[in-house]
Amino acid sequence: MYFDTTPKTKRIDLFGRNFLLDTLISYSKDQSVRMIVLKGLRRTGKTSLLNVALAETKLTYLKIDVREAPYYDRREFMAYLIEKIKDKIGESLFHKIIKYISKIEVSYKDISTAFFLQIEQKFPTFFERLNEELEKKNEILMLAFDEVQLLHKIKFEYNFAAIYDDYKQIKLILTGSEMGLLDEFLGKRDAESPLYGRALIELEVPKFNEEETRSFLLKGFEQLKKNISHEEIKEVISNFDGIIGWATQYGWFRNQGKSHSQTISTVLEEGIKLTRKELDNFLANRNKSKYLKILNWISKGYNQWALIKHQFVNEENALSDRQLQLYLRELLDYGFIVKISENYFVTDPLLLRSVT
Ligand SMILES: Nc1ncnc2c1ncn2[C@@H]1O[C@H](COP(=O)(O)OP(=O)(O)O)[C@@H](O)[C@H]1O
Ligand SMILES: [Mg+2]
C-alpha cells in the first residue's frame, strides 16, 4: 500500500522507482563496485529504496540506521556495529573470530567488557578476520549505513576507507540527506580526507514532479478504493511539492477518514513542527538570528547572493562576505536550501512556512 507511512520494504509498495531500484540492485550485485551512495533530500524515499534493494539482492546484508546508533562516540559505535555483525553472522562464527584475535578470554554471550576496552585496537583485526571467513564461504556482506554523514563526527570515514581498500568481501551502501556533509564524509572536498578519490557509484533520489505526484495520489487512492478529486490533488501538490513523504502522510490521514481540508491542515501542522525541529537542531550552536533572516529573505525572493547581502546592509547589520558564504554553505550542506544557477531556494515548503 502506497499510503503506509513507515519506510517501504517491498517493491510493490514503492511508487515510481523501478528504474532507480533496478539500477541500485544491479550495482549491488556488481563485483567491481565497492561503494554505493544514495543521496536525496529528507523524505524523498532513500530508506525505502534501500530497504527494497537490500531485500531483493539476496545478498547477506546488515543495515544500520545511524540515527539510532551511538554515532557520537567512536568506541560505542564500534561496539554497536560489532554487536550487530555478531547477530548477522551468528554466534559461532563470531566467537571463532573473536577467539582468534583476542588473547583475552571473551564470554560467549557478549563482547562488552574485555573486548570493549580494546575495541579501537581490535577493530581492524576483527574486520580482517571477518573478511577471511567470508572469503572462505565465498560470501559478500553488504553493510548499509542509513544517514551515514552523522558518522563524520567520530571520523568513521577512516574505518570505511580501510574496509573499502582491504576487505573485498564487504561492500558498502550509504545514504544521506544532508548532502554537503555527505560529500565531506566521502572526501569529495578535501584531498587529505580518507575516502578521497575512491571510486563510488552515486545515485540521487529526486523529488517527484507534478505529474508523478498526481499519479502517486491517484494510484494510492485506487488501492484504497477511494476517490480523490482533481482540485484536491492540485492542493496537495501546491502545499507539499513533490516530497513523497508528505503526500504519503496526506493519503494515510485520508484513509483514516479525515476530510481533505482537515488532512491538509494536519499534515501542514505536523510537518511544520517536524521541519522546524530539524532546523532548530541545526541552529542550536549557531547564530540563529542570522540564519533565520537568510531563510526568510530567500523565501521572500531575495534569493541571490547580492540580494541577501543587500538586505543585511539595509538593516545596518553588516556581515562580511566570508560570513555570508559560510552561512549559505552550511544551509546548503544540511539540505535546507538548494542553489539553482544563481538562486537559492528553501527545499521543503513546510520548512519555508515554519520560518515565515
Ligand atoms: N516510492 C515511494 N512510494 C511510496 N511511498 C514512498 C516512496 N518513497 C517514500 N515513501 C514514503 O515516504 C516517506 C518517507 O520515505 P523514506 O524512505 O523514509 O525517505 P527518506 O529516507 O529519504 O527520508 C515514508 O512514509 C515512505 O513510506
Ligand atoms: Mg531515511
Summary, kept brief:
Helix content is 54%, strand content 10%. It is globular, with a radius of gyration of 23 Å. It is of the alpha/beta class and 356 residues long.
Task: Name a few traits of the molecule.
Rossmann fold, Arc Repressor Mutant, subunit A, Helicase, Ruva Protein, domain 3, five-stranded parallel sheet, 356 residues, two-stranded antiparallel ribbon, 7 strands
What is the fold's blueprint, element by element?
Blueprint lengths: L17 H12 L5 E5 L6 H12 L2 E6 L8 H16 L1 H11 L11 H5 L1 H18 L4 E6 L10 H10 L3 E7 L2 H7 L15 E4 L5 H14 L6 H11 L3 H12 L4 H24 L4 H12 L5 H10 L6 H13 L3 E4 L2 E4 L2 H7 L1
Parallel strand pairs: 1-4, 1-5, 2-3, 3-4
Antiparallel strand pairs: 6-7
Helix pairs in contact: 1-2, 3-4, 4-6, 8-15, 9-11, 11-12, 12-16
Structural features, described:
By secondary structure, the chain is of the alpha/beta class. The chain folds into three domains: 11-204, 3-Layer(aba) Sandwich (Rossmann fold), CATH 3.40.50; 210-279, Orthogonal Bundle (Helicase, Ruva Protein, domain 3); 286-355, Winged helix-like DNA-binding domain superfamily/Winged helix DNA-binding domain (Arc Repressor Mutant, subunit A, Orthogonal Bundle), CATH 1.10.10. The protein contains 16 helices and seven strands. The protein has helices at 18-29, 46-57, 74-89, 91-101, 113-117, 119-136, 157-166, 179-185, 210-223, 230-240, 244-255, 260-283, 288-299, 305-314, 321-333, 349-355, and strands spanning 35-39, 60-65, 141-146, 170-176, 201-204, 337-340, 343-346. The strands form two sheets. It has a five-stranded parallel β-sheet with strand order 2-3-4-1-5, sandwiched between helices. The radius of gyration is 23 Å and the shape is globular. Bound molecules: adenosine-5'-diphosphate and magnesium ion (MG).
